[in-house]
Design goal:
Layout lengths: L1 E4 L9 E5 H10 L7 E5 L5 E9 L3 E9 L9 E7 L5 H11 L4 E5 L13 H19 L6 E5 L2 H5 L5 E6 L6 E2 H4 L8 E6 L7 H9 L3 E4 L7 H16 L4
Parallel strand pairs: 1-3, 6-7, 6-11, 7-8, 9-11, 9-12, 10-12
Antiparallel strand pairs: 2-5, 3-4, 4-5
Helix pairs in contact: 2-3, 2-7
Length: 245
């Protein structure tokens, strides 16, 4: 059954109007007609079922028939701290993080971060990131959108993870194997993983992360691209500690 995002959906909703991009998807892409059954979700855990009643020129109306009780959220509190990457790779990471049940993705800038976004374009970037999460949630069946944040520097990204196991992905000497590192998750509220930018963290930035309690952990003998490392660590940790597999 097709799913549509409606941010202001509530448990008291009985008739819901779908407009904007969601309406375009319903009418122009999927060509749904009155009588079609759909799911509506608000990105905060609520999902309702219903049938399309009317399809107009600018909006469609859905009559709510019931609620969905599907439980699709991972029990693992996984936070991905990802250095900002070029192009559309942040959207790729958000898409995969959503599918894999990640609770939060926080992008951050470093001395080697290439993308620089002016403050007047920050709103449009946040809108693109949210859209990527919504599209992925519609596809994978999640009812909760991951929290997507941006920290202007590494120091900001390192704050607030003291209840979690804190790992720093490290491709050089001195890293423990990931299997061994994950033993430290016992008794913790979750896992926070720091992934560096293209070219890696500077020695000073790595020292700052270690000083904040992050433990260097490796993913094997090969050097992975930043987005590959992010996808790999999310999959492995969700398999070991979450609900994947």
């Amino acid at each position: 059954m097709r799913r549509f995002y409606k941010e202001d959906l509530s448990e008291h909703s009985t008739r819901v109007d779908i407009a904007g991009e969601e309406f375009y998807h319903l009418k122009k892409v999927l060509r749904l007609a009155p009588g079609a059954s759909v799911f509506l979700f608000n990105g905060k855990g609520l999902e309702l079922s219903g049938k399309i009643d009317e399809v107009g020129k600018t909006s469609a109306s859905v009559i709510v028939e019931g609620s969905s009780r599907g439980e699709r959220e991972s029990p693992l509190n996984f936070v991905l701290l990802q250095a900002l990457l070029k192009g559309d790779r942040p959207e790729f990471i958000i898409q995969k993080a959503t599918e894999l049940g990640i609770k939060e993705v926080c992008f951050y800038s470093t001395s080697r971060t290439i993308p620089r976004v002016s403050s007047d374009k920050e709103a449009s970037r946040q809108a693109r990131w949210k859209k990527a999460a919504i599209e992925a949630a519609k596809q994978c069946g999640r009812t909760v959108l991951p929290e997507i944040n941006f920290a202007p520097d590494l120091k900001g990204a390192l704050k607030g993870h003291d209840d979690n196991l804190k790992l720093l992905l490290w491709e050089k000497d001195g890293a423990v194997g990931l299997k061994e590192a994950l033993k430290g998750a016992r008794g913790k509220s979750g896992v926070s993983v720091l992934v560096g930018p293209e070219g890696g963290l500077s020695p000073g930035e790595a020292a700052e992360a270690i000083g904040a309690g992050f433990v260097k952990a490796g993913l094997g003998p090969r050097i992975l691209r930043a987005e590959t490392a992010a996808l790999a660590i999310m999959s492995i940790v969700q398999h070991a500690q979450g609900d994947l597999g």
